[in-house]
Amino acid sequence: MTAYALYLHIPFCRRRCSYCDFNTYTTLGDLQADYVAALAREIELVGARGGRPPVHTLFFGGGTPSLLTLPQVAALLAAARAAFAVDAAAEITMEANPGTVDETYLAGVRALGVNRLSFGVQSALPGELALLGREHDFAAAVAAVDAARAAGFDNLNLDLIYGLPGQTVADWQRTLDAVLPIGVEHISLYCLTIEPGTPLQRALHHGTINAPDPDTAADQYEIACTALAAAGFDHYEISNWARPGRECRHNVVYWRNEPYLGLGAGAHGSAGGYRYQVVRQPRTYIRRMDGDPQPLTADARDSSPVTRHSSLATPFPLSPAVAAHHRVDDDEAMSDTAITQLRLLSEGLDLDGFALRFGRPFDEVYGDTVRQLVGWDLLRRRDGRLLLTDKGRFLSNQVFYRFV
């Protein structure tokens, strides 16, 4: 039976960050109890329709999952363990914002089985935190890590953002110098993208901030690569560094293009040869899971009927909250596999595995593209794998779009 990574979306926030275009809400806190009950029902329904399939990672994402109460976390984990065969050694991650947690809360979630935390720190500098709309200061981030250690966590990630408007190389170095001594197991670095409809996009439009400088961002990335390597981190994915053996097992599922189930408002999933998306609005999501008869919709590319009685085999685990889905044909699956696996820097794309999965050698499908990218020193071959070169890491989007 197929083993899955399970993602649970928690869409509530106390404050929306200026760069955020995720499916999150700051004014719907009164729905939290009803939402958790609806999510527990979706977990139970999908697990039952799939015949209680194995789950090897579970990820509470958001939003701010650390706004859940301990009884709510317990209810969702109990539902998952009842509906799925959750591995006793499963990696169970919760995203958290500094300032929303203390040692008592973290000890509670640790006792419930959460064994990995991901803190959204973003910067060590007050001005940058204000620009990003973050509620916490860096002292709160350090205090959150200390509380997590006291609560028994030994697997922590910190998210940081570089490439900010007006951020200098020296500014970025100050954040790295502040963060590295904390001694966490995993660090994720994301280059800022100013998304449409966000406060940062409006500020850019009105001229109150300048556009980020991509050359400066490239310098900042290079500095981070050097500093993290010196601190003992393995650069295992374009935006992620881990101490040996502490790679995020859940996210590696995405990068290998393996099956995962996304549950909760706005979540995405990939299972049984299909991709799907759950309705975005929490009120609509709750109504769907309460049995609202509103018809479901299917992607125009999918000719199979959308029903309330699908299983993993026909065509994939579907709940009443699914808003749209489509069948992934071989062209899309091969493209997705090339793009996601190349993000894994030390692992890369398994050429034999690709041929076994799709019945066609990679070079038969993408030979001309590969020869061009190898000639440009953006890709290289090693031990039956295709990997980004050091130059290719900096120009990865130029590589990936050629496989679309």
**CATH architecture name of the largest domain:** Alpha-Beta Barrel
Strand tally: 15
What percent of residues are in strands? Answer: 15-25%
User: For this structure, what is the CATH class of the largest domain?
Assistant: Alpha Beta
Structural shape: globular
Helix run count: 15
CATH superfamily of the largest domain: Aldolase class I
Oligomer: single chain
Helical content band:
25-40%
In round numbers, the mean pLDDT is 93
- Numbering strands along the chain, what is their spatial order in the largest sheet? 7-8-6-5-4-3-2-1-9
Low-confidence stretches: 295-314
The biggest beta sheet is recorded as:
9 strands, mixed
Q: Can you tell me the number of structural domains? A: 2
- Estimated structural class: alpha/beta
Query: Mind telling me the C-alpha Rg?
Result: 21 Å
Question: SSE layout and pairings?
Answer:
Layout: E1 4-10, H1 32-49, E2 54-62, H2 70-83, E3 85-96, H3 103-112, E4 116-122, H4 126-131, H5 138-150, E5 156-162, H6 169-179, E6 186-191, H7 199-205, H8 214-230, E7 234-237, E8 240-242, H9 249-255, E9 260-263, E10 268-271, E11 274-278, H10 282-289, E12 322-327, H11 330-342, E13 349-350, H12 351-358, H13 362-375, E14 379-382, E15 385-388, H14 390-394, H15 396-400
Helix pairs in contact: 1-2, 1-10, 2-3, 3-5, 6-8
